[in-house]
């Protein structure tokens, strides 16, 4: 009794200490609301785990680096990649408005007089952002968009002698997943259609940045910009990169896909430097070395490698070039980089050679390419895409062969020279054929063959293929050249010995060999459902896109204080782990080691998998659909969610396949698939049937949930619109038809269902074009409905098992309007008052799942669209 009284007193004191005015939801659309400081989200789980095409080191701080992974994130590390922090605004408006910060940060540069002042842009819009704290936070400058003519900014460069002066160039060439060079379009073509519309006003926020070659200059620290584009430049030209001569700042170089342009008067006039030694004058990448002693610069460039028909085989031109006279002339330094016929004939290389290097380049199929050019050339150059020079050593060069995204072929993905291009060798090596089929062939080229990368948390990648199946898109030296960071498919590797050895450092193991991982804080992982069970007190399960399932562990403090560690549960195929995307899983009510999992893409797509030993071994059960009959399974996404097991008849399983999900408005990509709705299996997952009788014909079912207080009833939440009404439905197990549940008048869309411990039913509801009185969070008690979160739209709701007055709710981003205050809201008094709790969570506007720990007071979890998982500790209720 005394203990309870003391607890209540402490809780009262804490609430008074941390008191803050409750959220006024009437201000949600027009007034910024700050999150309270007593709840702070910390990212956990594996680092990386998704493609990352943007890495940038601070130009003067050797320890600070920026990353912009492709799932809508941006991070900063101040310890060379050991740990990261998000640099987007947790309390910002919808990310679709691009006012939340530099999503997928692009081309930042920093003043050489004030290391804290910098400017950057982002991948898919035409805004620029300013920082005054070395990139910890950024502020958008929307006014310059008109000055940039709504054209995308590709590169930014400051005058190293005067941070009033900045240059910017247009283009999309850094977007390696969408910008390609082909035989028909050697100067480049943007491969995906960009929709028209201002950011934040529809079309997924993509502005109209229809490309025109432009170079701009600012003389007032980026506040205003003037067009200084070279006269006569081809309007299709991509401004690959801009450099300012440190000793003669009026000398400016602009590498473009139509040659090098040089100005001797700060951009007032330009001279085009073409036909000066390059084969094609199509500069894909460029870098500059400056010698402070001699005050001279050396320029390096990649001139597009063209594949040229030569009878029944292929020739090439272009490649790697160097200029020691400021671009007046260039010399080719391909040297021994082209690989010979013996390696090229490797069957695993041949697949990429015919499908991508020739097929995509010429716009024909792999079989057509093989028929036209059956003879392997004596030697062939990779279509390399990026070059970088060590800022302290002009002879130390790196060149990327990005065979994941670009039209080239495998057999070495990161080339290195230590003598200025006289000899090249592959400096990052992984794959069976380095010491197998091709060992002798590489050794004759004086290329080491020892595997020299430690994958740490991604150890299943070690020598799984002949050569790495996915290459990287970006490699960068830090300010003094002592550290190299290179992105390899879904992770980042670091070398501190010039590239001799590489270490994947996106995560750390809590103890050697236990495979418990603490992430570095730069997750790019698509988080899905979070699974708890009242019988399990020491861990929860986390479903993950592309990364199977994770289980939390309790030893993260061994790496960093307060860190949450996870253990990856791999779902094997013939005892080998496969990349798979688990959207939902369920635990047998009678056996916590008996579990099922469903996959929305990749391995086991359309297959129910089962384990009876807590995830150590998995076996296929029934098949829901065959993706091979629906089109191209590689690019399909068919979400299967909210797998539920009948609590009394455990052979009965239920789950949902929605055509569209309310969570960040995601639609399916499933080819010919049409059987959406609610599925059931009455034989433990061997066979399935759709049970949609009574549901709206075109409704999108979002959630199903058993009433834990009336175990015979299953509820379904159906998303709707003002024209196509959804709602809340109930199915009694004795019936085969869903019955509509009474709701307050005007509610046409229901998104989530939650039953609290005190026998109340919570739902989230609303449409973005609806009214406040028909949305938000509602609770039913004694058959009476009451709105407890008054807003026009909410997506998720949950309550604490130990105190049903503790409520979490989520308001997501919206694709059709500028959301001012999306995120997570918390109530401690049953919904009477609410606080915003986004602090620390850069994707607080894109929450896929939201949970309160069943056993630990004041501990919350969420999964995000693309920043993995977060854990939060609520100081107001923790004891």
UniProtKB/TrEMBL annotation:
One BP annotation, GO: xyloglucan metabolic process
Superkingdom as given in the UniProt entry: Bacteria
Residue ranges of the region described as Disordered: 75-99
Keyword set, alphabetical order: Signal
Entry coiled-coil feature ranges: none
Signal peptide (residue range): 1-19
Name assigned to this protein: Sortilin N-terminal domain-containing protein
Organism for this UniProt entry: Flammeovirga agarivorans
Classification lineage: Bacteria, Pseudomonadati, Bacteroidota, Cytophagia, Cytophagales
């Amino acid at each position: 009794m005394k203990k309870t009284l003391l607890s209540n007193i402490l809780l009262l004191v804490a609430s008074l200490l941390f008191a803050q005015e409750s959220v006024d939801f009437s201000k949600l659309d027009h007034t910024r609301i700050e999150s309270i400081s007593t709840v702070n989200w910390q990212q956990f789980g594996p680092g990386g785990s998704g493609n990352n095409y943007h890495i940038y080191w601070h130009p003067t701080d050797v320890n600070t680096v920026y990353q912009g992974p492709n799932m809508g994130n941006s991070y900063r590390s101040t310890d060379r990649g050991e740990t990261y922090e998000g640099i987007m605004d947790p309390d910002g408006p919808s990310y679709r408005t691009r006012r939340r910060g530099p999503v997928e940060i692009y081309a930042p540069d920093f003043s050489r007089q004030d290391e804290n002042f910098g400017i950057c842009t982002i991948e898919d819009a035409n805004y620029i952002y300013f920082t005054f704290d070395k990139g910890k936070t950024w502020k958008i400058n929307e006014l310059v968009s008109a000055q940039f003519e709504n054209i995308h900014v590709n590169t930014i460069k400051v005058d190293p002698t005067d941070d009033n002066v900045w240059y910017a160039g247009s283009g999309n060439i850094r977007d390696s997943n969408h910008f390609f060079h082909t035989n028909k379009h050697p100067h480049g073509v943007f491969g995906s259609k960009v929709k028209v519309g201002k950011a934040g006003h529809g079309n997924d926020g993509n502005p109209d940045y229809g490309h025109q070659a432009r170079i701009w200059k600012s003389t007032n620290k980026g506040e205003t910009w003037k067009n200084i584009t070279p006269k006569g430049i081809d309007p299709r030209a991509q401004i690959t990169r801009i450099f300012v001569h440190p000793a003669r700042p009026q000398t400016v170089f602009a590498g473009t896909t139509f040659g090098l342009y040089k100005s001797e008067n700060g951009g007032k006039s330009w001279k085009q430097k073409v036909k000066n030694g390059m084969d094609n004058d199509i500069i894909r990448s460029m870098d500059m070395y400056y010698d402070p002693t001699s005050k001279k610069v050396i320029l390096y460039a990649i001139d597009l490698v063209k594949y040229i028909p030569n009878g029944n085989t292929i020739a090439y031109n272009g490649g790697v070039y160097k200029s020691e006279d400021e671009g007046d002339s260039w010399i080719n330094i391909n040297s021994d980089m082209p690989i010979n016929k013996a390696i090229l004939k490797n069957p695993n290389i041949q697949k990429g050679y015919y499908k991508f290097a020739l097929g995509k380049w010429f716009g024909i199929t792999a079989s057509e390419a093989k028929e036209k050019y059956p003879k392997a050339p004596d030697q062939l150059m990779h279509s390399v895409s990026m070059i970088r020079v060590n800022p302290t050593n002009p002879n130390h060069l790196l060149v990327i062969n990005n065979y994941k995204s670009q039209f080239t072929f495998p057999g070495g993905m990161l080339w290195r020279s230590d003598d200025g291009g006289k000899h090249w060798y592959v400096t990052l090596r992984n794959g069976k054929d380095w010491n197998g089929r091709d060992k002798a062939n590489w050794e004759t080229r004086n290329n080491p063959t020892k595997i020299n990368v430690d994958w740490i948390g991604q150890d299943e990648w070690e020598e799984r293929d002949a050569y790495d199946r996915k290459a990287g898109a970006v490699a960068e030296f830090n300010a003094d050249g002592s550290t190299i960071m290179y992105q390899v498919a879904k992770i980042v590797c670091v070398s501190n010995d010039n590239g001799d050895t590489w270490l994947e450092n996106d995560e750390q193991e809590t103890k050697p060999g236990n495979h418990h991982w603490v992430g570095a804080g730069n997750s790019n992982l698509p988080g899905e459902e979070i699974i708890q069970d009242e019988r399990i007190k020491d861990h929860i399960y986390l479903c993950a896109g592309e990364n199977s399932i994770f289980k939390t562990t309790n030893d993260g403090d061994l790496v960093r204080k307060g860190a949450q560690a996870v253990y990856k549960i791999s779902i094997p195929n013939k005892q080998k782990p496969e990349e798979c995307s688990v959207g939902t899983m369920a635990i047998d009510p009678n056996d916590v080691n008996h579990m099922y999992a469903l996959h929305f893409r990749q391995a086991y797509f359309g297959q129910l998998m089962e384990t009876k030993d807590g995830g150590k071994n998995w076996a296929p059960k029934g098949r829901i659909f065959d993706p091979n009959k629906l089109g191209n399974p590689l690019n399909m996404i068919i979400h299967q969610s909210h797998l539920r097991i009948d609590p009394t008849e455990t052979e009965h399983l239920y789950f949902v396949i929605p055509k569209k999900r309310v969570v960040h408005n995601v639609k399916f990509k499933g080819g010919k698939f049409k059987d959406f709705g609610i599925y059931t299996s009455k034989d433990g997952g061997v066979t399935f049937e759709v049970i949609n009788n009574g549901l709206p014909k075109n409704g999108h079912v979002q959630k199903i949930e058993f009433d834990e207080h009336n175990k015979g009833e299953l509820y379904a939440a159906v998303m709707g619109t003002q024209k196509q009404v959804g709602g809340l439905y109930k199915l009694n197990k004795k019936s085969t038809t869903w019955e509509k549940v009474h709701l307050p008048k005007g509610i046409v869309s229901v998104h989530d269902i939650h039953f609290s411990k005190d026998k109340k039913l919570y739902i989230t509801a609303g449409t973005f074009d609806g009214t406040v009185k028909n949305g938000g969070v509602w609770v039913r008690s004694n058959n009476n409905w009451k709105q407890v979160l008054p807003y026009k739209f909410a997506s998720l709701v949950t309550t604490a098992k130990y105190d049903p007055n503790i409520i979490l709710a989520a308001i997501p981003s919206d694709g059709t309007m500028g959301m001012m205050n999306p995120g997570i809201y918390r109530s401690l008094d049953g919904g009477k008052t609410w606080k915003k709790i986004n602090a620390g969570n850069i994707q607080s506007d894109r929450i896929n799942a939201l949970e309160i720990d069943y056993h630990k007071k004041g501990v919350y979890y969420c999964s995000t669209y693309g920043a993995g998982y977060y854990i939060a500790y609520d100081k107001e209720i923790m004891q």
